[in-house]
Design a protein that fits this description.
This protein has 28 helices and 17 strands. By secondary structure, it is an alpha+beta fold.
Length: 808
């Protein structure tokens, strides 16, 4: 049974949450409505119409329902089933907010079934989230958490960043409400990481404030304060005044707990002023009450009285929901007063008996003193009578006490019976909802005994398999162990029973009409109060389309992989041969690690007229796009260098830019790309050992005598349309014997890893080169590989990696 005060508190929280969403979304609604001023429902884009309905779900549900009706009619006519499922879900949320849970379940299931039919995983996840909302409304946090986790798993598979952030925030909020602050912090931090990459500031603010409250729950005040400030900054940037009110109120409470009363007073006043502007009387009421208590603590009783007076005046204008809360609190108080009155009367009765006994003893004692000398015999009789009366009085007191105790026990039994009746009513209502779910869902539901005997199936079983329940038992068997087509059914059933936790598996089976289908089964144990399994629920979902899609995807992936491997061989063939590279630089090494099969990084060397040219380049992107750009770069570089008698790096880069601009048709003002090329290009005179260098965003390093010399590039791209008139800078350097030259793309230094999951950085790379440059080239190559693997750990490689090193 719901505790009445707890239920009311939950309703008030939901009201405040919806009110906050209404204020935060007010500007968005205005923008959408501005769009519709010159339009009608029939001419407005259907997605825009759906968005307006969603934003109005809390502030004007009647209008929202009217708009959703229009969305449903148009979505059916235009065959836009994703929007249709979304509209059904919106109706479910509006019905849930209104307290009509049966209606809410019907609409949400309708949206869920449609999402299953069209294979819309995001729509299925939304339905799971909305079912969680229903249980959240009813303070069934464990059930709500179960549906939220289902929603989260679906969003993980579809990698929907926007909805992942919302799902993690919702789960974190549940854990916060349950007082599991460590888990709440874990989920809320994950939510914020996802939300950082989206523009959903409303949910991000709520996650920040939830995180602050969770830190306060663990007495981690420093961390709580940081989250509060970050939440405030977002509120100010987004002009979200409703959440700013919450921030000021929480900040005031924080400073009050720190006994910094001046700061607390300032934030309470800010909350009051801002709540006046946006007519948020709930926050204003809280702030007035907190400020009144603060003035009492600081002994400023005149201000305390004024704030308390304002607080009570504001309370008079609270809506019917708050009046209901006051009435419920009065009922609880009346119950308390009744018990207190009963206890008081019991104490008064006992006191009266004691006084009566004392008075009686006094009268007897006086009578005995007066008649002691005259009526000794009468005194003896009087003493006997006194003792008899005293015994009778005590017996009467005991009997009265027993009667009172029996009355108390009877009242307690009546209260227990009333609680059982309310609990039974709630269970019956819950069973109606569950029965509706089992009837309307497309998933097959089995009820099994603990030993696997099939006791009941729902109507969806016949629709899916073609069998009636009796036909199935005759042809397949009465026990899941013999009826299931899964080879691991015995192991899965045993695991479910031993662990008392849900177990899932997939299997291929055959319908009555000899059609092969794939089924995903979840076995869930039902436990009694003694933690014993009374039933096992088996839910089958048809995943045939998913399996077929997986097979097609696997085939496509195989074809794509083969194509990429072939492209890799072609790309490798365009790079200089190892034997040619060895003839130019006997001491050298190359590290070429594509992020995928093909790479956007490349190196190129050639010799002409006693000059040796070496280049390392990084095309924008990686994979297939990067590979195309690298092929274009190699081809253009070969053509430009081949036409020059004297190889001069700056001129090569300038002519390379002109060539690329021509090839990409920049001069025709066609749609341009954001692709570019970073390159380091060195030309060494084999006779004088003078090295000329020019670069575009790529440095070259020279190491000698424990000193690293960096030849820095120009900070613009080869074919950046905004800088295509700028000349490249030529740098000249006299090489010495045994100098070592290193050229890198940024893949090595940008790789994430290490204990703090940060980039490797150019600073670490330079230090590593200083530590190893005197070793043989092959050893250096191995050490660089080892360093990269150790740093990267289990992280994925984020970019192509290319290193060319040689000794003069």
């Amino acid at each position: 049974m719901f505790n009445k005060v707890t239920s009311i508190y939950i309703v008030l929280l939901i009201f405040l949450f919806l009110r906050g969403e209404e204020l935060a979304a007010h500007e968005k609604i205005n923008n959408l409505e501005n769009y519709t001023i010159k339009s009608t429902k029939d001419t407005i884009d259907i997605e825009t119409l759906n968005d307006i309905a969603w934003e109005l779900r809390a502030s004007d549900p009647a209008r929202a329902i009217n708009l959703i009706d229009s969305v449903i009619i148009r979505a059916k006519a235009e065959n836009k089933y994703t929007i249709l499922a979304d509209a059904y879900n919106h109706l479910g949320v509006i019905y849930a907010n209104a307290g009509d849970y049966k209606g809410a379940v019907e609409w949400i299931l309708k949206g869920n079934n449609l999402s299953h039919e069209i294979g819309d995983s995001v729509g299925i996840a939304k339905a799971m989230n909305n079912m969680a909302l229903i249980y959240w409304h009813r303070n069934m946090l464990d059930k709500s958490l179960e549906y939220l986790n289902l929603s989260l798993e679906i969003h993980k598979k579809s990698n929907s960043i926007k909805y992942l952030g919302i799902a993690y925030n919702n789960i974190g909020t549940i854990y916060k409400e349950r007082g599991e602050f460590k888990k709440a912090i874990e989920y809320l931090n994950t939510s914020i990481r996802y939300l950082d990459s989206t523009s959903n500031h409303i949910i991000k603010i709520k996650a920040k404030f939830n995180l602050a409250e969770s830190y306060l729950g663990l007495n981690m005040k420093k961390e709580a304060l940081e989250e509060l400030f970050e939440g405030e900054n977002i509120c100010q940037k987004t002009a979200n005044m409703a959440d700013c009110c919450d921030f000021y109120l929480i900040k005031g409470q924080y400073f009050e707990s720190e006994q910094q009363y001046k700061q607390a007073e300032q934030f309470y006043k800010k909350a009051i002023n801002l709540s006046d502007k946006i007519n948020n009387f709930i926050i204003k009421s809280k702030a007035l009450n907190q400020l009144s208590k603060l003035y009492v603590i600081t002994k400023n009783f005149e201000k305390a009285y004024k704030m308390q007076d304002s607080y009570h005046k504001l309370k008079d204008s609270v809506n019917s929901m708050q009046n209901y809360i006051l009435l419920s609190r009065l009922e609880v108080q009346n119950e308390f007063d009744e018990k207190l009155d009963k206890q008081t009367k019991r104490s008064e009765l006992k006191e009266q008996m004691q006084k009566a006994e004392i008075a009686y003893q006094k009268r007897v004692r006086n009578f005995l003193l007066i008649g002691f000398f005259f009526f000794l015999l009468l005194a003896f009789i009087a003493i006997l009578n006194y003792r008899q009366k005293l015994k009778s009085a005590k017996m009467l007191a005991i009997q009265r006490q027993e009667i009172l105790m029996k009355n108390d026990a009877l009242r307690e039994q009546m209260e227990a019976d009333r609680m059982k009746t309310e609990l039974l009513e709630f269970i019956n209502e819950e069973n109606e909802i569950l029965s509706l779910v089992a009837k309307e869902t497309d998933n097959t539901v089995f009820i099994l005994s603990p030993d696997g005997k099939i006791e009941w199936v729902n109507e969806a079983f016949h629709r899916l398999s073609g069998f009636t329940f009796e036909e199935f038992k005759r042809t397949r068997g009465k026990n899941i162990l013999e009826a299931s087509s899964s080879e691991a059914i015995s192991e899965n059933l045993r695991k479910c029973i031993n662990t008392k936790k849900p177990v899932s598996y997939a299997s291929k089976t055959e319908t009555k009409h000899k059609e092969d289908i794939w089924i995903h089964t979840t076995l869930t144990p039902v436990l009694n109060e003694n933690d014993e399994i009374t039933r096992i629920i088996a839910i089958d979902a048809d995943i045939t389309k998913i399996k077929e899609a997986e097979e097609q995807i696997a085939l496509k992936n195989q074809e794509i992989t083969w194509s990429l491997q072939y492209a890799r061989r072609m790309q490798k063939a365009l790079l200089p041969l190892e034997s040619y590279l060895t003839s130019l630089f006997p001491q050298h090494f190359v590290i070429n690690l594509p992020q995928t099969i093909v790479s956007g990084d490349f190196y190129w060397v050639t010799q002409k007229n006693e000059q040796t040219l070496a280049a390392v380049a990084d095309s924008t992107g990686h994979g297939v796009p990067g590979a195309f750009m690298s092929l274009l770069g190699i081809s253009a570089l070969q053509e430009v260098a081949g036409k020059m008698d004297e190889l001069e790096p700056a001129k090569i880069l300038e002519q390379l830019r002109e060539k690329i601009i021509y090839l990409l048709h920049y001069h025709d003002n066609v749609e341009s790309t954001e692709d570019s090329l970073d390159i380091a290009l060195c030309v060494i005179n084999n006779r004088t050992k003078v090295m000329n260098y020019a670069g575009s965003n790529n440095s070259a390093f020279i190491l000698r005598d424990d000193v690293l010399i960096e030849l820095k590039p120009d900070k613009y791209f080869i074919w950046d349309s905004e800088t295509n008139q700028k000349a490249f800078t030529l740098k000249t350097f006299q090489l010495l014997a045994e100098d070592r030259i290193y050229m890198f793309t940024d893949g090595f230094s940008d790789q994430f890893g290490g204990e703090s999951d940060k980039k490797y950085s150019r600073r670490r790379l330079k230090k590593l080169l200083l530590d190893i440059y005197t070793l043989p080239m092959e050893t250096q190559k191995d050490l660089l590989h080892m360093e990269l693997e150790n740093w990267q750990g289990k992280n994925e490689q984020i970019d192509d990696i290319m290193v060319l090193a040689f000794q003069v």
